[in-house]
Amino acid sequence: QVQLVESGGGLVQSGESLRLSCVISGSISVPSTMGWYRQAPGKRRELVAFISSGGSYTNYTDSVKGRFTISRDNAKNTVYLQMNSLKPEDTAVYYCNRLRIPLTWGQGTQVTVSS
Predict the structure, then answer these.
(1) What is the pLDDT of residue 28?
(2) Which has the closest alpha carbon to 4: 107, 74, 110, 106?
(3) Which segments of 8-108 are extended strands (E)?
(4) Given strand 68-73, what is the order of strands in its sheet?
(5) Pairing state between β 92-98 and 109-114
(6) Count of CB atoms situated within 10 Å of the CB of 22
(7) Contact 69, 55 (CB under 8 A)
(8) How many angstroms separate the Cα of 25 from the Cα of each of 3, 38, 107?
(9) What are the average pLDDT values for consecutive 10-residue runs of the chain, which has 115 residues?
(10) How confident is the model at residue 2, as a pLDDT?
């Protein structure tokens, strides 16, 4: 059974950085397009960024362009989200998942940005 385990969140001040990691454990026959999502209190889950299976293509929602960078290491079955210049509105629980056929959601990692 495939599991998604997110980590790296925390409490930071506005302008600081965090790097999130998502380890994909279990068996996936081939790498898939993966995304990072976030859900703020009282809001719907939104797709923040995604990366193609080989890592050559990335895409970001407008609110994080220029600040966040998604990457992956297929040898380690890990997807990363480097978050710079964090803002209070980035506060949310962050999740990773396969884009087209979602897997069971992990527990996510909490990111809190104070002003």
Answers:
(1) 66
(2) 106
(3) 10-13, 18-25, 34-39, 46-51, 58-60, 68-73, 78-83, 92-98
(4) 3-7, 18-25, 78-83, 68-73
(5) antiparallel
(6) 26
(7) no
(8) 5, 21, 14
(9) 94 98 81 95 97 96 98 95 98 96 95 97
(10) 87
